[in-house]
Amino acid sequence: MPNFCAALNCSRNSTHSVLAFFRFPRDPERCKKWVENCSRSDLKDKTPDHLNKYHRLCARHFEPNLITKTSPFRTVLKDNAIPTIFDNPSLKRSNNEQTENMDAPEAKKSKADSQSEPAKDNSEATTKEISETKNGDGVDRSPQVIDEETLNKEYLKSLFDVVVMMGTQNIPLHGHSDKEPRSKSFTPSNFQALLEYRINAGDEFLRKKFEGSPVNLEYCSSTQLQQMLEVIENCVREELMAEVKEGRFFSLVVDNLVEIGGESRLPLFIRFVDKTNWLREEFVGFLPFEGDVEAITKRLIGEVTEKCGLDMQYCRGQAYLCSGVSAMKVKAVVARIAELHPLAVLTPCSSCSLNICLANTMTFTGVHLVMSTLKKLDVFFSKSPLLQNQLESAISIYYQGNEEKANVLKGACYSKWTEQHDTFEVAVDLLESLLLCMDSIHDNEDHKWSDEVAHNAFVISEALADFEFVMTLVVLKNTLSFSRAFGKNLQGQTNEVFFASSSLTAVLHSLNEVYENIEVYHEFWFEEAVNLAAALEIPVKVPRLYFRKRPTSGEEIQPEIYYKEQVTLPVVSHAIKELSDLFSENHLKALKSLSLVPAIMGQLKFNTAEETSVDIYKDDLLNPDTFPAELHCWKIKWKHGTKDVVLPSTIYETLQLSDVKFFPNVCALLKVLYNLPVFALTNDKCSTAKQRLTAYLEDTPVHHRNKSMALFYINCAIKHDLDSMVEKYLKMYPDSEPSENRD
């Protein structure tokens, strides 16, 4: 509760004032002078102990030289301090004044006497006093007694409020002094600074708790802070998981490896269909990436079942976006989960094009060089529009006789061309322009660019001018050209996804044909790479690293043979295997079940056989025995009952139908299918989690990243109940004293 000033005609209280409030002294003589000077005759009969416990005077009534600030959080009075400053000059008292002005006190006493007339008993007087105090009309503004339990709860509530605010606004817990252990910075941690500000702004619960403890700048121990972060994490997850549990089914998406708190961790997202039938993807935490495949698998399942409270029996899909060496380990983890839960099928993720996904999972040196260089190019040109203009100028130079092609490439540069289905085709077409652009920026003859930009351009140009890069890029372009249209359809409309499942066989057939005739295809691809290198004046040679890794044998390996064995063969074989793994039998059955969507049924002339493909989800249906009859009615409804009506073309549109409730099995099956990661998030409000994770990682230095604070920031739209957090904290840590561990 706030403190009220006991002086007559003073309405200040700690809620709306940053002033300090001081207790009446227990010394009888000093206490008597305080009562006399504040013109409160109704307090004369109160004992010093009573006055000390229930009454305060604000700092405005004391001379400045009587007040001392002993710490950033504590303001005290000198031992002999007497209040002498009051609004009414006739009521002012000095320390030596012994006379008493009776006007105001008599009025005060008269009012007090009228409140204690014989007709009113003590309970009525107390009730009136409380009522008047609440309405601001009563004279005695003294606060009610606050027991220790209430004080602790309010104190914790203030701490939680500060931490949640810092998390949602992405304010790091620590300040400059925490960045460098030996730093002499006077800036405290951000958390400490905000607590100090809150105390000075009038948070009496923080002030009381601090004043009751030894004075120290460490207002909250690191142990207690970590406990609070854990509690807030649990509260955020509970709020997120409430709707997931309501819909039962979900899918898991694992993002690229990141560094959080000095550890490598995997961001984990959960996809589900909410009660309004929107497909959503929410961030639920970071998974430590330590140990072998079994250890990580156990940890991931524990994160989902124990922390999120979900049942893995209802997991219907998995996807991962990792690249390089970590991708193979993550793939082994999701494969292990698929063994334990066969219906948790592995699918491509809708947020990443299939060809980029395939390339990211290749651990070969040349592919790693290409993919890392593409990322550097994306970051480099995003720094300034002037760099983009420089690339456009280079494109104009190389495509002087082909303005149409030049315009197409310039347009591609304004999109995320390094992440598209045709990335490698565009990269080959842009290679000459990119190298010219990088060389020009690195030369920096007109001193237009900073040293950092010029250096980054040099690093990129060195990679582009390497024949290993050129050869690998050409192989990726040609190999993944067979899966380009297939991958584009997977991220298209629902009917395109359905028909893509039927074209996988043709894609794999083409890639197998390449593999069986690898000598012929490699010869053509090597010649293409050599011609491109010649145009760029890049020497054709075997990578230097190859010779360092192999003992000197006296035999010289030819570049064409080397790149066939180290690039072409591995890339083609990996693409075949990865596509086969991504599109298992259960995954293809799931995609074929999309024929339940009315528009797709119409395209197929209502000649479909969903019973076979739906068999894998029979246990997910509300009443499997009635499904054949229900499916027949579903087809009749759209075949004969909707003349001149546009058929719903997506799962979402179908689920929005008012009469879909009369087809419970169809409705349940569509919701199960909708969870698969292969489907794109069409509602922008449902896809902000990934964007906020990216923003957090880009905006927060590595040494300031915190897994709990990241969770609050990414899920800032989640409502936060501070009272619930306090109750959960006291339940989880019943023996933890909020003011403990202050050094």
UniProtKB/TrEMBL annotation:
Q: Name one GO molecular function term.
A: zinc ion binding
The family database entries (SUPFAM superfamilies) matched by this protein are listed as:
Glucocorticoid receptor-like (DNA-binding domain)
Ranges for domain THAP-type come to: 1-86
Stretches with biased composition (Polar residues): 91-101
Per UniProt, the ranges with Basic and acidic residues bias are 105-140
Do the record's keywords include DNA-binding? yes
Keywords on this record?
Answer: DNA-binding, Metal-binding, Zinc, Zinc-finger
Q: What domain of life?
A: Eukaryota
InterPro entries with a match to the protein in the record: DUF4371, IFN-induced_PKR_regulator, THAP_Znf
Region called Disordered, residue ranges: 85-146
Per the record's keyword annotation, is DNA-binding included, yes or no? yes
PANTHER family membership? 52 KDA REPRESSOR OF THE INHIBITOR OF THE PROTEIN KINASE-LIKE PROTEIN-RELATED, 52 KDA REPRESSOR OF THE INHIBITOR OF THE PROTEIN KINASE-RELATED
UniProt protein name: THAP domain containing 12a isoform X1
* Source organism per UniProt: Cyprinus carpio
Q: What is the lineage of its organism?
A: Eukaryota, Metazoa, Chordata, Craniata, Vertebrata
